[in-house]
Amino acid sequence: MKNYANPSFVDRNKNAAEAKKKLLEKFKNAPKPDEATLAARRAEQELADKAREARRIERERVKAETQARKEAELAQQAEAALIAEREAADALVAEAAAKKAARDERYAARKARKR
Fold first, then answer.
1. CA gap 102, 46 in Å, rounded
2. The model's pTM
3. Residue with more model confidence, 37 or 62
4. What does residue 109 show for φ and ψ, rounded to 5 degrees?
5. CA angle 93, 94, 97 (to 5 degrees)
6. How far apart are CA 85 and CA 38, in angstroms?
């Protein structure tokens, strides 16, 4: 009577060899893919690769256009800020000149009264 609870090394080795043989037979008897199926699958994969590459290129183009648009907008905003800053500086200079002219006028009037 065999002891199935504690098989010997020989039994385990024999069972492993049989399992390997059955597995090899299973793969040997499996149907082989024919050349037409492989070619069709390869063609489908190439089409998918081309489509993926086209989508990637389109994404990069859109991203570049968006970046260029943002840079142009930032440059335009910087130019507008510079113009506003210049106008403010010109206004300050004009105001200072007007105050100086008024002060000079008062000074000239005071000198004229003293004479």
1. 83
2. 0.47
3. 62
4. -65, -40
5. 85
6. 70
